[in-house]
Amino acid sequence: MRKYFIIITILLLASKTFAHTNHYKGIKKIEMDVIRNGEVIGYSNYFFEHNDNKMTVKNYTKFEVKLLGITVFSILSEAIEKYKDDKLIFFKSHTFQNNKEKYVNLNYDYSSKKFKIHGSSYVGEANENCIIGNWWNHKILKATKQISPLSGSIKEQVVTFIGEEKLIINNIEYLADHFKLKSKNENLTDDKKLNFDIWYNKKNNLIIKVSYSKMGEWEYKLKNFE
Fold first, then answer.
1. Would 14 be classed as within a structural domain?
2. Distance (Å, rounded) from C-alpha 62 to C-alpha 68?
């Protein structure tokens, strides 16, 4: 009897470990519009490659804010994430924000069970429970810390469930769980604080909308997925 109990426990743990990867196994791409003050100004698109127990995610983000024909804020970024057995093992990004270069090089160290990070804002280690702060991975709604995909800095966060809501995006109605994601440290300056509203569709396991206020009203909104 004890032998069967151990086998069942192992199977349950294994199913939990692989559950998240399975959520995205059939996904080839997620395309999101970047919107400011109601106007589409760019995109953030994710492309998925699957190979047995491995998954690679590539992200391309580009947008710019213009005022009187002059670019006052811009992002041009490329990133790649690699997962094995549902565990992040590699992340690399290269970003130009207002023509200022930012970067992250992250590798998982199996001996210490920690991430080794060399970023433009942080060099050091991070706990393996940290997650890359992007909008394809709904694990961000359960994490207590996120790693900046632009600079590698680590931020503590608190996620609160607001309620269930219906959203219409591109003439498609979604039933979504609405969450609030905020910085745990309220003493941070406004430019460092996390303060996002996030809508997650359980049916498709996708974050379908993100909104925040910073020099205008911003949204990342699902455009298409395959």
1. no
2. 20
Q: DSSP alpha helices (H): ranges in the chain?
A: 2-23
- Is residue 191, in this structure, part of any structural domain at all? yes
Domain-embedded: residue 123: yes
62-79 mean pLDDT = 92
The per-residue pLDDT for 21 is 57
Residue 4 lies in a domain: no
Using DSSP bridges, classify how beta strands 54-67 and 39-51 pair: parallel, antiparallel or unpaired.
Answer: antiparallel
* The total number of structural domains that make up the chain: 1
Q: How is 167-207 classified by DSSP, letter by letter? A: EEETTEEEEEEEEEEEES-TTS-TTT--EEEEEEETTTTEE
Examine the pLDDT at 19 and tell me if it is beyond 50: no
Cβ neighbours of residue 124 closer than 8 Å, sequence gap 6 or more: 117
**What torsion, rounded to 10 degrees, do the Cα atoms 6, 7, 13, 14 define?**
150
Whole-model pTM above 0.90? Answer: no
Which of 117, 194, 115 is closest to 157 using CA atoms?
A: 194
CB 84 within 8 A of CB 54: yes
> Is a pLDDT exceeding 60 seen at residue 106?
yes
Q: Which structural domain, as residue segments, surrounds residue 179?
A: 28-225
Contact in structure between 76 and 96 (CB atoms under 8 Å): yes
Distance in angstroms (rounded) separating the CA atoms of residues 147 and 125: 11
